[in-house]
Design brief:
The chain has about 160 residues and is mostly helical. The protein has 6 helices and no strands. The relative contact order is 0.17. The mean pLDDT is about 80.
């Protein structure tokens, strides 16, 4: 195996359980379409996306974040430090990445999101990527994780 190309290995589609690459692509496409339609519905009703200005890039977040954090960063960290430190470090970086949401989230919501992504969701998707040797089941999980944001009404803030 060419170790210089190793981090890119996790970007390849691989069969996972009953999910062939074609099925995974179909699920990602369906979840992307559902997310797009829900965001469009929310925008038409409120003029915002997730309570903020409309930003279409959010539709690609599950794909881009999984490519970056579980494809490139996790793969490189695993090669350099082993699987456990790769999961820990990439998950902490993933949590810190969510500081970008400071522009539209309350401090309490932001802290919760950073802790959730660094301590729960990041380690789960990192372990899933290392176990399956592909990021694509994590992309599916990421879309499913983010989907309730558009399905649920906004929670009132008690401040």
């Amino acid at each position: 195996m060419d170790l210089n190309a190793y981090p890119i290995e996790l970007l390849r589609f691989r069969k996972f359980w009953l999910f062939t690459p074609l099925v995974q692509i179909g699920i990602v496409a369906a979840l992307y379409s559902i997310t797009t339609l829900l965001f469009a519905r929310g925008f038409r009703l409120t003029g915002t996306m997730l309570g903020g200005p409309p930003e279409v890039w959010i539709l690609f977040v599950p794909i881009t974040e999984e490519i970056l954090f579980r494809g490139f960063i996790l793969g490189a960290l695993e090669r350099a430090y082993g699987w456990l430190w790769a999961i820990i470090l990439s998950s902490l970086l993933f949590g810190l990445w969510h500081l970008k949401n400071t522009f539209w989230m309350t401090n309490d919501d932001l802290e919760g999101q950073i802790l959730y992504t660094a301590l729960i969701f990041g380690p789960i998707t990192a372990a899933l990527a290392l176990w399956t040797r592909t990021i694509w089941p994590g992309v599916i999980l990421h879309y499913l994780n983010n989907l309730p944001i558009e399905l649920l009404p906004p929670l009132p803030h008690l401040h």
